[in-house]
Amino acid sequence: MTNSAHTTVQRYNPESLAKPVGSYSHVTKISRDAEMYVFSGQIGIDQNNVIPNDFNQQVTHTMDNIVNILASQKLTPDHVVKVNIWATQEIDWDHFYEIWNRVFGPTPPSMTIAYITALGLPELKIELDVWAAG
């Protein structure tokens, strides 16, 4: 992927590898002159500081928070190079990918997913760790 706004981040899937099993890119390349941004894990808290009990609502809020934190640094989802996903229960992939694809489009960033027993607060069910370059 060469983003229309910049060429700082390029994403692709080498033909020598199996296709990704999800909506992610195997390779994300960052240009040499880019600044790296590492964000604290984003959670499903809403603008009123409420963490909903519903897993899918947490997913939606988490993705909204990612877009907002990127914008705070004058970045877009095109600048994201890697997302680590930590979940305490099985992800509803239909809902997750609906939101993910809306945010990241047809050429999403690299991704790692892990199921774990707990996150930093007992009510958290998902947290996304985002790295970007711009």
How would you portray this structure in words?
Helix content is 22%, strand content 26%. By secondary structure, the chain is of the alpha+beta class. The chain has a single domain, classed as RutC-like (60s Ribosomal Protein L30, Chain: A), CATH 3.30.1330.40. The strands form two sheets. Strands 3, 4, 5, 6 and 7 form a five-stranded mixed beta sheet that branches. Helix 2 links the parallel strand 5 and strand 6. The chain is globular and about 40 Å long. Residues 1-5 have low confidence and may be disordered.
Termini separation comes to 15 Å
Helix and strand run: EEEEHEHEE
Mean pLDDT: 92
Overall shape: it is globular
Please give the CATH architecture. Answer: 2-Layer Sandwich
CATH T-level topology: 60s Ribosomal Protein L30, Chain: A
Which stretches of 5+ consecutive residues score pLDDT under 50?
1-5
Tell me the strand percentage band.
25-35%
Total of helices: 2
Radius of gyration, CA atoms, in whole angstroms? 15 Å
Computed structural class: alpha+beta
- Indicate the percent of residues in helices: 10-25%
Protein name: Enamine deaminase RidA
Describe what is shown at a glance.
Pfam families: Ribonuc_L-PSP. The chain has 134 residues and is of the alpha+beta class. Helix content is 22%, strand content 26%.
What topology does this entry show?
Layout: E1 9-12, E2 27-30, E3 36-38, E4 42-43, H1 55-72, E5 80-87, H2 93-104, E6 110-115, E7 126-133
Parallel strand pairs: 5-6
Antiparallel strand pairs: 1-2, 3-7, 4-7, 5-7
Helix pairs in contact: 1-2
